[in-house]
Amino acid sequence: MSQTASWQHRLAERGVDRRLWLLLPATVFVLLLFIYPFLYGLSLSFQPLKGGGALANYQKFFNDAYQRDTIATTLKIALPAALLNVLAAVPIAFRMRGRFRGKRLLTTVLVVPITLGTVLTAQGLLNYLGPTGWFNRILMAVHLIDDPIRLTNNYWGVFFSLIITGFPFAFLLVLSYLSGIDPTLERAAATLGASRAQRFRRITLPLLAPGLATTFLLTFVLAFSVFPSAVLVGNPAGSTRVISLAAYQAAYEQYDYAYASAIAMIMGVVELVVVAIVLLWRSRLYTGSTGGKG
Amino acid sequence: MSGFGQLRLEGVGRRFGTADALAGLDLTIERGEFIALLGPSGCGKSTALNCLAGLLPLTAGSIWQDEQRIDTLPPEKRGFGMVFQNYALFPHLTVRDNIAFGLRMRRLPKDEVRRRTTAAIEMVRLEEHASKLPGQLSGGQQQRVAIARATVLEPSLVLMDEPLSNLDAKLRLEMRTEIRRLHQSLGLTTVYVTHDQEEALSMADRLVVMREGRVQQIGTPEEVHTTPTTWHVADFMGYRNLLPLAAQSVAGEVVTVPLGGTTIDGVAQGTVAAGEDVVVAVRPEDVKLGNEGLKGLVEVVEYQGRELAVEVVLEDGTRLHARTERKVQAGESVSVAIDPTRLLVYASDRPAAELVTAGLAV
Fold this sequence. Notes:
Chain A is mostly helical. Chain A has helices at 2-13, 24-45, 56-63, 65-95, 103-111, 113-116, 118-129, 134-141, 155-179, 183-191, 196-224, 228-232, 243-252, 257-283.
């Protein structure tokens, strides 16, 4: 009896006890809904529909400029959009720290776009920024422009859509990272003679940077897999022919699942490269305690 | 920047919403003084410190450094050093960089920054830890970094906000001496906030005792310790025996009050009239167990090293805290004597019944 008790005790010290079962649902979930489809897709990508060796699908993608360019097209939309989301979130979150009247209302307004969904956002963009939308009509009415500016059904339409849907995420994340930084640190810097700008540059920004890196990655990954808005407010045949669109066409227009899988794998690798670069940079920053309660 | 003749606070007040956190603070700080702001939590002492530092704008009054008005300057323009309760060390900078921060903000030459930083690190004896991050230091070491960081700029005034409250008892005693030593050797002017009366008495040249946003008494440690101006100050300064009584007769300074079935004499603090409600204050150290005096029973005995802290219940039910070196036990019959010069009698600011519910001894 005492023998089994001590054995259980030693296991428990190493983190093996009955609470381990709590991990089961997540493990099953990941295995069934991520690992298995991923491995299935990976093996499928090496079995080209028309033969020609295991790497034929990948060769086909990189030999075809129309397909290959989707990588650059997607990066050209996703990287600036993610960057702008993070950069815009910082000053707003910075101002929204602490308590003030109407904070909850303002936060709600800033976060509401999350609930809208891509289609509603696209609809709104077309109405507002389209050639006959309010934006152009107002500019023309005050004679700032003679012809409508094209802001939809091209690169900018998709870009705006990604800002609208991505910004709330970036804002919420940056706000929580910022609240985790002890405000006394800035006060201490002030008593040491640091101006407002120096306090931000020397104290807040270095402590916030790892959080900004994480935020950038999350909004980047969201933006990289952009699909509905690329079709609805973009130019899916040209400037916004993103990589997910290429994969979709391979799978559901050409019914070549193996090729579509290969494109999906390429998409994943490109994302991983960006993630790896950012994480490498992040690992060189200070990532310890920031003194706050967040 | 450094050095001033005197710093004057004139009617300084700070209001939060409708509540006065600080009101009508008048104080003149002479160069080289060590001033302690003392009081229970919420008394406005930290508010006063933050107003001095420029971290909180005033809502009333003004602050003058010699002939220059400084309460309109932002904190970075005042050139005061500040030590925070939670130290507020920059977690991403090494000990050396933390201490050098203020010097770098002044854009001093590199050589000078290095020389002064090294000297400051030596002064607080952290040479071996200079390249560590604050998170790798103990509480006492972090506190020393915070002090070095605030003093390396040779500020005209150093503000300390309960800097020792997060340390254990032993370290607190050591740091007390350390801070006082630095104050003297660097010729600093220091304003020190604490709720620990012992700390304030042992470190400061002058004490400012505060309560509910207002100054109760300003004086040397001895003045505040021996003659508190109000019974609230007495309460805070360790007069554990506070008794709401009625003055029986008054002769000059001597007030006679009924206690323990008989009467006892005390010294009036301020004006006291016969028949008035009064609060009588006496320290446990001034209540002696002996063979003569008020009769009572020992109820509780606490061992305190050289002495015993004893609670005695008198015949009329009054409880008195006393100290004695005699070995007594709970249940023993004793007599207590009180030195009449150490029994302070204050005019009561509230009816006796209210004082009883406010937690004063019966």
